[in-house]
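Q: How would the structure tokens look for this protein?
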Amino acid sequence: MHATVAPAPTIIGTDPFSEATLRDPGVFDRDALSAGPVLYLPQYDLWALARHDLVKAAFADWRRFSSASGTGLTNIRKSAAWRRPSLILENDPPDHNRYRKIMASVLTGATLKRIRTQFAEAADTLAARLVARGTFDAVKDLAEPFPFLVVPTMLGLPEEDREVMLTYSELNFNSMGPNNVLLQRSREKAAPIIETVMSLCRRERLSSDGLGAQIFEACAAADIPEEDAAVLVRTFFSASMDTTMNGIGFTIQALAEQPEQWAMVRADPSLAKAAFDESLRHRSPSPYIGRTTTCDVEIDGVTIPADSKVLLLVGAANQDPRKYDEPERFDLRRNSSSHVAFGVGIHACIGQMVAKLEAEMAIEALARHAGTIQVVGDPQYQMNNWLRGLSSLPVQATAA
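A: Here is the predicted structure in token form.
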């Protein structure tokens, strides 16, 4: 009798963190989706899942695919982390539940209703000014400034120090990937401000009317120390900025490149929400998330050993032709609610309603003021280990 040979993972040679991939990530996503169900990247000793059903299942299975060892490439239980881990994203139950409950108590329907008005007013003012100019950069002048305008104010962060938080956030996402040139540059840039960042998130530095103050109050009521409250504020800021900026930029690009889709949003501004959801599926700003196996995990006969880093390929999963017809096509009429851009299960992004609100208000405002919008220059891509986004998108708009 012949011994049965256990199925092996598919070796992926394409480097997800190379400059070529960062400039054209679709190549890596397609390679991953056309390979077997379980992937292995030997250069990083990294396992990966790309199929939509497998990524979704791993997200939901926190007991076997743990977040507590870090959601990047580094196992933070074995290597010292450069910052204190997130109490929500890099934590598992039962400890995780305490902190998620705090954030849920702050991000209520009443809170979202209040900040919706603030976001809408700021978005309308910004969009009107940009459309009046005619030509502007949809990333540098809108997608980046708008979240930067509303989120720190929402949290109550001191205005004079907000740029420091963006520098920190850039390092945060680069550090999720490998120790390459991008990470080294971010470390050098952020070195002078690392200690400053946590001081900005302390109670005495926050305004009394922001969500940051509410987080401190909720933590105090639950007998959670102020040091933990400051980490929650820091996490909220990092999670609310870069990915939302990139998502808004990609949405505007898709609409500007497809006039018939832009006309639909102009005719029915409530479609701004659907446009953002479809954009998150079409070009996910956060294409990867890491998990660590707590035991041997078998998938389609392939065994991923215990204590292995597994990369959930969110961007690829959202392009899976097994799940979506013509996945490469942006279509806001598509039901995109099944995308995994915000994660699934207990670790799903707690602030996703805020991100959606930011994007909805920005796109609605632009649709009110711009009759047409078109790309008039070459889009420039952002270089970051853990994010996908545009750094520049020159557009021309005509007033409605």
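The radius of gyration is 21 Å.

The CA atoms of residues 102 and 396 lie 43 Å apart.

Upvote if useful.
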